[in-house]
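Quick one, probably user error.
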């Protein structure tokens, strides 16, 4: 059984690109369209890693990560923020919320998989 990764992005095409890269790397993928949707899909699921966009409707990525980390089951799940946001303050907020890596769009699938592999080695 491969490791499961939750991909959270309000752009369906971005979710598709990320999912294809991950599935190509042998991972199972759960997709969510925003933070609220992601929290609903997490409940009871074993997830090994989360890749989340920052700017989304309903619940942004940083709020979602904070909410997810309140749940003991997901406290240690590594998070990669995937975003067009290069803003240092956002980055700092993401790290404080618990994000372990920051990948800026547009990204190379290999770059994404390298970040994923690095975090899953821990």
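Nope, works fine. Designed sequence:
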């Amino acid at each position: 059984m491969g490791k499961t990764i939750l991909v959270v992005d309000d752009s369906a095409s971005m979710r598709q690109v990320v999912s294809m890269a991950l599935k190509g790397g042998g991972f199972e993928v759960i997709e969510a369209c925003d933070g609220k949707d992601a929290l609903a899909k997490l409940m009871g699921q074993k997830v090994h890693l989360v890749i989340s966009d920052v700017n989304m409707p309903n619940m942004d990525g940083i709020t979602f990560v904070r909410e997810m980390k309140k749940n003991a089951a997901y406290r240690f799940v590594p998070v990669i923020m995937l975003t067009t946001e290069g803003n240092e303050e956002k980055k700092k907020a993401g790290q404080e919320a618990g994000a372990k890596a920051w990948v800026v769009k547009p990204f190379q699938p290999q770059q994404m998989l390298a970040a994923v592999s690095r975090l899953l080695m821990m």
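The chain has five helices and five strands.
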